[in-house]
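Quick question, first post here. What does this chain look like in 3D?
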Amino acid sequence: MALAFRNGLRTVARRLQVRNYADAAKGDEMALTFAAGNKVFYDKVVVKQVDVPSMSGAFGILPKHVPTLAVLRPGVVSVTENDGKLNKIFVSSGTVTVNDDSSVQVLAEEAHPLENLDRAAAQESLNKAQSEYSSASNDKAKAEAAIAVEVAEEILKAASG
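> Answer (accepted):
Ran it through. Tokens below.
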């Protein structure tokens, strides 16, 4: 009897450990909420695809994606809307959550459409951040400057093309 109980318990535990694709509530639809401290870009809008830059690598999200939680790195989030329009938005950092109902939340610290980025201002910010990194007098200042350099480099890359 104890053996049967243990085997039953193992079977249940294995089922709990299996990763499954999301069960979309409305077929193959994916609702996107994308917000930052400065603006709400999408509020539960159904979209085709979302591509995000994460600390573990960039990845694309489609309806029925495996539930996921990831940390955003500086870069471009690309949203393919249902009509095929591609919207590109630069994010400095944040999180992305893919839920089991195929909803997606992108919460960014700061976000701006690519067309609003100024290449000259981005280059100026990069130069300043690199100077601050070079002159940093302690580990905290050096770490903060390194983050500023990374963000400025990604803004410049996004603004350039």
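The radius of gyration is 20 Å.
Residues 56 and 70 are 8 Å apart (CA to CA).
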